[in-house]
Amino acid sequence: RSRKITGSVWREEFDDRPDLLHVRTVTFVPGDVTHSTPIQLIEEEYGYCEDVEAHNAIQRRVFHIIEGRIQLLYHYGRHRLLQPTRSFIKPADRDPTSLTPDMTQGFQPDPSVPEPTMAVLWATLGEELEAESLAQEEVRRAVEETHTLRSTRTSEEHNITLLPDIFDTKRNQTVQTILQERQFREAHREEEVQKKKDEREGKVDIIAPYLPLASEGMSLAGSELVRETCLQDLQERLAIRANLMQDRLDQ
Asked: Where is the Dynein regulatory complex subunit 7 MORN domain (predicted)?
């Protein structure tokens, strides 16, 4: 799909639309095109579906919005040099049944195709009026979409934000955070190891080795000896831990 804007003329090209619409050209009244700018005419070009008879398959459709007319050009019939046409003057009340014979003209190069009745023409006009309304809605959406894209592009051009590459280790904040965390872990690895070791040592019951020495019939002197031994062992452990902490502070 593409959209080309030249002044007040917009041309859109489509691919693989279910309705076989290939090109739509919209002519606005001269001036800056906005959502409320009046539309002069809409021209549409369609592909051909072989399942539909050529004289019923529209090739080109023109909505004269301001003039209140609709022109239809149908595909070539088999072995035909001319194309069927049909034009309508839209009723003021937009009621298809208000169409009179003097408000429509047609040309059919194939003499085997019967002249359409007024009922058929009313149905055709009703379909074209619906198609006209749908086309105008799509055009208005296209105008809004284009203005949104232009505004976004202008904002991006005036507020440029450069995103660092994921492999740029100096400017990528995420990479910097990861590296800082890694450096912190490396710097405190020995401290973490010693902390875990201290935690394991803290779970050891220092009195447990001396419990077998204690008994209910132990004398006061024996109890004092066990107590002094436990305290001496605890002091030695605390001294070793204090020395380790001092060594870390010195480093």
From this structure: 6-162
> Kind and range of the H or E element at 9?
strand 9-13
- Which of these, 251, 240, 38, lies nearest to 143 by C-alpha position? 38
**CA nearest neighbour of 40 among 72, 63, 21:** 63
Cα-Cα-Cα-Cα torsion 25, 30, 34, 36, nearest 10 degrees, comes to -90
Least Cα distance to 101 among 87, 84, 118 occurs for 118
What is the 8-class DSSP label of residue 103?
G
Each of the 251 residues of the chain gets a pLDDT tens digit; together they read 788 888 899 999 999 899 899 999 999 999 888 888 999 999 999 998 888 888 889 999 999 999 999 999 999 877 788 999 999 999 999 999 999 999 999 999 888 888 999 999 999 999 999 999 999 999 999 999 999 998 888 888 888 777 777 777 777 777 778 888 888 778 777 777 766 776 666 555 666 666 666 665 667 777 777 778 778 877 887 888 788 887 777 76
- pTM: predicted TM-score of the whole model, two decimal places: 0.61
* Listed residue (85, 75, 62, 67) closest to 132, CA to CA: 62
